[in-house]
Amino acid sequence: MGALASPEAAHPEWLWHSGALVRWEEARVHVNAVGHASVAAVFEGIKAYLAADGERLLVFRLEDHLRRFAESARLCRLTLPYDTGRLREAALELLVANGFRQDAYLRPWAYPEGIVRELMLPAGARCEVVVDSWTFDSSLETVPGCRAAVSSWRRIGEAAMPPRAKAFSNYHNGRLALMEARQNGHDWPVMLNERGQVAESAGACVSLVRDGRLVTPALSSGVLPGITRDTVLALARGLGIPVEEREVDRSELYLADEIFFMGTAWEILPVTAIDGLPVGVPGAHPAAEEAAAAETGAGAAGPVARRLLEAYRRLVRGVEGDSPWLTEVKPG
Ligand SMILES: Cc1ncc(COP(=O)(O)O)c(C=O)c1O
């Protein structure tokens, strides 16, 4: 089904809090730091992959995630006390301290500092920053599939709150859609935007494939500017797969040859059924079906998703060699 990162896993030894490494047990804040302060809080989700050589930990697109973190803070009118360079050091320092030798997930977040009793926090509020991290089982090697359903909840839009911000408050939207999907026996929702066109899921962007073309909702469709989405589009272009970023109709989901979600936590997650309809119109694309059947270890992915998964796996595990998108975690 694909899984969100699992914070209930055994906790790491160290966190980074307001400029220093802090032992997990000693990382404390006043009760006032939860509640109202959370309304304006922003965060990021970043992955570090164990390289294919089993020796090195490689953080994927760290600079881009930290840039989006700063942009989320700006959209929520928060003042981060650290620049991107300092947060980069913090992330790497934390990964070294925790000594992970397997795939890991990094979670920086910023919340307004001090006593916050007002929901209407003034613009420019200074923040505290925490970076948490935990181990993470990648599904790049196993490739599960999931069943998705169009949600009755619409994705938040520019008229209500900025969908481009990775703000905790935005996640109530996805949470409602996810609970509805689970209640109805599906794994993940697909949310339409306020105009009724496809937006994204509850923590991942979405793409479909039709007649060999990869189609994904434009950033102006109310999606978070996903870093995995951006990576997948770059990989597709590199593989000669035509890419369309545009408004996507709901009915296109039902006619797609393939659908998959894209996100840091979900990686590339194939959708095997949408609203109970198996993905891929039987008989419509015999060449693609034959190609799919001929290959082994396909998991739930269609032929295009499979090529992208392989390219993504090779990229993040450093098989393709050095990439400006990879930052090696080096002690000291
Ligand atoms: C709401 C939402 N959309 C999309 C994504 C996918 O973005 P990314 O690929 O940068 O993780 C995420 C995950 O961060 C998300 O929370």
Please give a structural write-up.
- With about 325 residues, this protein is α+β, with helices and mostly antiparallel strands.
- The chain contains seven helices and 18 strands.
- Helix 4 (about 225-240) links the parallel strand 13 and strand 14.
- The longest helix has 15 residues, at about 85-100.
- The radius of gyration is 20 Å and the shape is globular.
- The protein starts with 13 loop residues before the first strand and ends with a strand.
- The model is unreliable at about 1-5 and about 295-300 (pLDDT under 50).
- Bound molecules: pyridoxal-5'-phosphate.
- Pyridoxal-5'-phosphate (PLP) binds near residues 203 and 224.
Bound molecules: pyridoxal-5'-phosphate
* Average pLDDT figure: 91
Helix content: 25-40%
- Helix count equals 7
The level 1 CATH classification of the largest domain is Alpha Beta
Oligomer: single chain
Family: Belongs to the class-IV pyridoxal-phosphate-dependent aminotransferase family.
GO molecular function: transaminase activity
Keywords: Aminotransferase, Transferase
InterPro entries: Aminotrans_IV, Aminotransferase-like, BCAT-like_C, BCAT-like_N, Class-IV_PLP-Dep_Aminotrnsfr
List the SSEs and their pairings.
Elements: E1 14-17, E2 20-23, E3 42-43, E4 46-50, E5 57-60, H1 62-75, E6 78-79, H2 84-98, E7 104-112, E8 125-135, E9 146-150, H3 171-183, E10 188-192, E11 198-200, E12 205-210, E13 213-217, H4 227-238, E14 243-246, H5 250-255, E15 258-263, E16 267-274, E17 277-278, H6 286-294, H7 303-316, E18 326-328
Parallel strand pairs: 6-8, 9-10, 9-16, 13-14
Antiparallel strand pairs: 1-2, 1-8, 3-7, 4-5, 4-7, 5-18, 7-8, 10-11, 12-13, 12-15, 15-16, 16-17
The structure holds pyridoxal-5'-phosphate (PLP).
Pyridoxal-5'-phosphate binds next to helix 4 and strand 15.
